[in-house]
Amino acid sequence: MITETGKVIALKEDQAWVQTIRQSACESCSARSGCGQRVLASATSGRANQVLVRNTVDARVGDEVTLGIDEQALLGASLLVYALPLLLMVLASVAGHQLSGGADLGAIAGAVGGLTLGFVLGRWRQTGRGHRYEPRLLRVNRIASGA
């Protein structure tokens, strides 16, 4: 389970708007001085992201909460969004090239058609399974106050 902490900023019926602040692991990394990722992270650090999730833990505005998403769901969504369209684009491009007798226009048409088919199939496969790919509220992080 991949987790992230955030703060509930608003409630909407049975859902909650949660704001998270993107954090960078660059501060604790030993290779930070020679890494290009640090430059990218510093350009976007501190940017707040907001996500609407089902409020399954009775969170209230101002509560710090933990969000989570299953690793397998994230991997599956990544494959549907990236790998399937690219794979179909390459296969359809080769098929278009062969069917057109080696013409570039056939390869281009096949590539566009395969890419489009990949996006449509990915969208169709995801339909009805939306909750699997959405982050969930796992818990409210209440700090116990000492007396």
From TrEMBL:
Any Pfam family: RseC_MucC
Residue ranges crossing the lipid bilayer per the database entry: 79-99, 105-124
Highest taxon listed in the record's lineage: Bacteria
Keywords, sorted A to Z: Membrane, Transmembrane, Transmembrane helix
PANTHER family: PROTEIN RSEC
Protein name: SoxR reducing system RseC family protein
Native organism: Marinobacter qingdaonensis
